[in-house]
Predict the structure.
Amino acid sequence: MRLLFAGGTGIISSACAELAAARGHELFILTRGRSRKHPPPDGAVLLDADLGDEPGVPSGLLAGMQFDAVLDFLAFTQQDIERHLQLLRDKARQFVFISSASVYQKPPASYLIDETTPLENVYSDYARGKIACENHLLRLHRESGLPITIVRPSLTYGPSQIPLVVGSWSHPWTVIDRIKHGRPLIVPGDGTSLWVMTWNADFAKGLLGLLGNQAAIGEVFHITSDEVLTWDQIYRQTFEAVGASPVILHLPSEVIAAYWPHAHSSLLGDKVHSMVFDNRKIKSVVPDFDCEVTWAEGVRRAINWHHSHPQFQTVDHQLDALMEQMVLAHSRSLPS
């Protein structure tokens, strides 16, 4: 197949690009820059453009080009998706939008989530933007037959990411640095909320199976691991991967959010709730989809990647200091 990725150097898109190239697809990547963490695969054609700014797309860049599938990893608002469609909709036999499982109802009426779960998240602007994108695309599919497929990843990570619930996405080594220095990691609530962590190359197998697949047109799928862990288990396995004994501090999510504004959307609007995903729909359309990498294995791979790339062993000092403030405030609240 001939594929166009709008974005291709992020955690999710880079793994999908690697698999597409490995399977022999003709791959074009529309990108505004080069990633030091996720370089494009050999053989991919890079098209320099900034979809965030319409004049940033050179005139005639895609003239005369057609693709079996166009994948949009870069739209976060309805304005984004409208702008991207102006450029890409006539190029695609299938338009695949990468949404997010954060769109699902929070708090959920049931811990078990399938694609019919209502979309509602009052805590997260990010989730509401993705919902608006989905609604716009589904309306176009109904009204004009636009051949869309919507995909919702949950917390998907890869070698360059260690996505703990209280941690830094830009500086994931922060939590490992704390472990190595014997400082506690913070876990929301009592650590028993259920969660799912998905390795990016496993996600890619599900996504690639939807491309050129007529059964995927007009449909919505989430793609996640079937391994369900509590946050305490996720953290304890992280400590084990470092070779350290667990040092965990449980704090109410509202307290964490009072110190850390980011937690209003990422925690209160998402990860504080138990979320288990029913993957029967993606497996019915992509029968060979299977997640092979457990969290225990994936976090070991991510730590080893950082050992091999010491330039990315960076620390978010502001978040680290906030965590120390929370630890100190908690210790002062205890009876002497």
Remarks:
- The first strand starts at residue 2 and ends at 6.
- The chain has eleven helices and 15 strands.
- Residues 161-196+229-273+294-327 form one domain.
